[in-house]
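S., here's the first fold you wanted:
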Amino acid sequence: MAKFDANSTLKRLRNRYRLVVMNEDTYEEVVKFKLNRLSVYIALSTLFVLLTGLTVALIVFTPLKYYLPGVGYGNSKQVKEYRILKMRTDSIEKALQNKQQYFNDLQKVLQGNVPKLDTNKLNLPKLENSEE
């Protein structure tokens, strides 16, 4: 198994690299950067921390937090109101379905598409009582 050498890892992080952006038509250097792996790592880490901090600050310090259901900033009045509205919506939806079914059935009757029901009297055999 290979040994882990902290000194060689640190040297690799500090090796210098040059990033050059060139104009493709004239091969003129537009911008050049002298970088090493450590500086790139630090820059990306800083960018990540800043973006995370800005996102958290946006949620915590603005009214945006009230629109995120999983965050838990809603008060009990809003939760109760939400439940009442949900029950009303469900009852309105059920009433609408019932009315739609009624109108569909009424339309079938008016068009004469009613299935014919068997109205004949059934002749069932009489059960014999053992008491007689």
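And the second, which I think is the more interesting of the pair:
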Amino acid sequence: MATPKPKPGDPIAELVESLLVELGEDTERQGLKATPDRVARALRELTDGYGVRPEEVIAGAIFDQDYDEMVVVKDINFYSLCEHHLLPFFGQVHVGYLPKGKVVGLSKIPRLVEVFSHRLQLQEQLTRQIAEALNESLAPRGVGVVVEARHLCMEMRGVEKAGGHMMTSCMLGTFRRDPRTRAEFLDLVKRS
């Protein structure tokens, strides 16, 4: 997604400036003069997934294909902001699906991850949204998504414990019903 252009008089920049003053900072000092505009641009970029409809990302890249074995795209890096504290969480997404006469262009799966991760998120919700969007667009026999991430809201504040990873999964269709399919997907995901 393209980096948003700064808006003159951006209300987010004005809010950031008020926040800095409220924290006790001097917004006129050299290091902070441009901070409100930089933060506004960064927040607009990190949340530009709101302006994108997932079905539009995939629409032009669905192809008829007589292939019925598992398709897996793994180690898709992502960054998002936790909706509770607006602090980053980041990690990797692994996606698999069992085609039913249709496949999606390879680049569209990471793009789908980006659309949902560029919104204020919970990891559980992100995992489900990716799986459901792929399921709705392709109508495959099944979809599996695993997300593993580090959360700075846990590492920087509150419990302040670094290094823990959260893992979530969403299994739809055959991935949910058939233990062998689920096991094959999870085995493929964990291989280095």
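Why I say that: The first helix runs from residue 11 to 22. The mean pLDDT is 93.

Talk tomorrow,
H.
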